[in-house]
Design goal:
Helix content is 29%, strand content 11%. By secondary structure, it is an alpha+beta fold. It has 3 domains: 54-198, no CATH class; 208-216 and 271-533, no CATH class; 541-592, no CATH class. The strands form 2 sheets. A 7-stranded mixed beta barrel has the order 1-2-3-4-5-7-6. Strands 8-9-10 form a 3-stranded antiparallel sheet. α4 packs antiparallel against α9, α12 crosses α14 and α13 runs antiparallel to α14. The radius of gyration is 25 Å and the shape is globular. The termini are far apart.
Length: 592
């Protein structure tokens, strides 16, 4: 027995060492950085520590990097090594991500600033980054402020919604600076583990109007399709977007499309009247609203096959029983009775309190019917926020008259654009019930009091600007100049503070919470704000494609690739203040 005892400790030590070595990733040797594999969820305190800008370096084979840049729309997954704040991880999947923004950058031969996704466990199932399975690196496309996603998710957290974690990162590829990105926690398994002990099911509804064409642009969504031989984007007939220019060279706006008409001599886009398909707060129905598919969260029948927008986009594993729980909840929501049994009403009310503040119409409250997650747990539904780079009016480019004043004063109780409440039942249950509406107002009031009236927002905003400004100035792939960033952040701060002021007036009754009932004299004046200076959903026209600045739709939104209509003209008198053929600063666009 003594001989066994004598060698017991060395034997155990040897076995422990062998087990440890077997857990190391292939290719690592003595002296190399090796991540510690652990089930502990520590990524919130490390990578998502927002007090500093983090560093991420992607080490990718030169041939793979060349292939990614040559074929970005394929979203090929490449095996790489990734170093986060000095900690190295091997065999990490690295790929491009996105749809319209991806196609836009892909159309520009001068830029390779794509958004990326990292999957730590694709090639090594046991590997995570400190408990995080997937990470998104967003390129801040269409956001001259660099801050819209960050601030939007902060507002959600302030009202009690589990928004994805975010932080800023300085990205390098093979040691070469690639730019300042925002890191966003993926809403998938790790998110559920962090927020809900891994329970529940996640879906990311996408309307079938967002099916991608071969260039990655949404078909049928009103976005430009792949250019034809002339090099100009093709505008789908019936999409409500401009068709080929007529003789004067201006785009033709289809009547009844919900897009602005161009009256002779006015020099201003005219939006449809408030009785039909209108802009934000118009109570208008849109022909695009189609309850089939499920993304509108409208109950149609009991068959899972009737809801492909939901169940074809399951994030977590889901079987038929899971699908039927969702359908039962949608049916209960549609009945209007005992809604709390089918919907986590408290969470959905909090979701809309933040969402309706930030004015993002590339979402459920607009016509696109995407950019949110549907979460089901115990037969009850709630919504989670996603993709806010077009918040604060960027997607609409202004309200019905193209002004920031319209957007800043949008009624809290009438947040829909191009749809009525029957087409958005997850919002309708709040608007149509006095008790829920009062709870919604209480959440909004607390947000204003605790975050804005206290001065905490302004303090946080200024601190964030100071943190990222040095990185913006040296960003080698930036879509906007440092001067444009400075203008954008001043505009954003003013816009948000004015929005908070307007909401305060709406809550105390000084201004109607219904957009159409508002007294114009009581509204907060935002006429000094140019929404397009913060970025717009066409992207940075004079940096993508070098075809001119601010071309395209109202709000100076340009086409992917920076291509405007002939002459590089935006609509006359758009929010950027540009005359036909001019940049917003008054200088002429580049010649042919």
């Amino acid at each position: 027995m003594r001989s066994v005892k004598k060698y017991f400790s060395p034997i155990c030590a040897f076995l422990a060492l062998a087990l440890l070595l077997s857990a190391l990733p292939a290719g690592c040797s003595d002296g190399e950085s090796v991540p510690a594999y652990t089930d502990e969820m520590t990524y919130a305190e490390t990578l998502f520590d927002t007090s500093r800008v983090h560093t991420i370096d992607v080490s990718i084979a030169k041939a793979d990097w060349a292939d990614l840049r040559a074929n970005p729309l394929s979203k090929t997954k490449y095996e790489t090594a990734v170093t986060i704040d000095g900690e190295e991880f091997r065999s990490v999947s690295f790929s491009t991500k996105g749809n319209t923004s991806l196609a836009s950058v892909a159309g520009d031969s001068a830029s390779d600033r794509y958004s990326f996704k990292l999957n730590f466990g694709k090639y090594n199932k046991s590997q995570t980054y400190r408990g995080l399975n997937k990470l998104n690196l967003n390129n801040l496309y269409a956001d001259a402020t660099y801050m819209k996603d960050y601030l939007s998710y902060e507002l959600f957290r302030r009202v009690g919604v589990d928004a994805p974690l975010v932080s800023f990162v300085w990205l390098t590829v093979n040691g070469e600076a690639h730019g300042l990105y925002i890191a966003i926690e993926d809403i998938s398994e790790s998110y559920l583990e962090r927020t809900a002990s891994g329970e529940g099911k996640l879906y990311k509804p996408e309307s079938d109007r967002l099916d991608m064409d071969n260039a990655g642009r949404p078909e049928g969504s009103g976005m430009p399709q792949a250019p034809d031989a002339s090099g100009m984007p093709q505008m789908p007939e019936g999409s409500g977007m401009p068709q080929a220019p007529d003789a004067p060279g201006m785009p033709q706006m289809p009547e009844g499309s919900g897009m602005p008409q161009m009256p002779e001599g006015s020099g201003m886009p005219q939006f449809p009247d408030q009785s039909g398909q209108g802009g934000p707060g118009s109570h208008g129905k849109a022909d695009l609203d189609d309850p089939s598919g499920g993304a509108a969260l409208i109950y149609s029948d009991d068959e899972p096959s009737s809801y492909p927008d939901i169940f074809d986009n399951a994030v977590t594993d889901a079987d038929e029983d899971d699908a039927r729980r969702v359908i039962a909840a949608l049916k209960g929501l549609a009945s209007g009775e005992d809604v709390d049994k089918y919907v986590d009403t408290d969470q959905v009310i909090r979701y809309f309190a933040a969402h309706n503040f930030v004015l993002n119409y590339d979402s459920y409250t607009g016509n696109m019917l995407h950019n949110y997650y549907l979460y089901e747990r115990g037969g009850r539904l709630s919504m989670l926020p996603w993709d806010y780079n077009l918040a604060f009016g960027a997607f609409m480019g202004g309200g019905p008259d193209g002004s920031a004043t319209d957007m800043v004063n949008l009624g809290l109780d009438t947040p829909l654009s191009g749809a009525d409440e029957s087409a958005r039942p997850m919002w309708a249950f709040i608007a149509e019930n006095d008790e829920y509406l009062a709870e919604y107002h209480e959440v909004c009031a607390k947000l204003i009091s605790d975050y804005f009236d206290s001065g905490e927002f302004a303090k946080q905003f200024d601190s964030l600007v100071s943190l990222i400004r040095p990185y913006v100035k040296k960003d080698p792939s930036a879509f906007y100049t440092a001067d444009e960033f400075e203008t954008a952040i001043k505009t954003l701060k003013s816009f948000i503070l004015k929005r908070a002021q307007s909401i305060s007036l709406q809550l105390d009754g000084s201004l109607a919470a219904d957009t159409l009932a508002q007294d114009p004299a009581a509204r907060v004046d935002a006429s000094d704000i140019d929404i397009s200076s913060m970025g717009s959903h066409g992207g940075p026209g004079d940096h993508i494609g070098q075809e001119g600045h601010g071309q395209g739709f109202p709000g100076s939104q340009g086409f992917p690739g920076g291509q405007g209509f002939p002459g590089g003209q935006g609509f006359p008198g758009g929010p950027g203040g540009s005359a036909p053929g001019e940049r917003p600063d008054g200088t002429p666009p580049p010649g042919p």
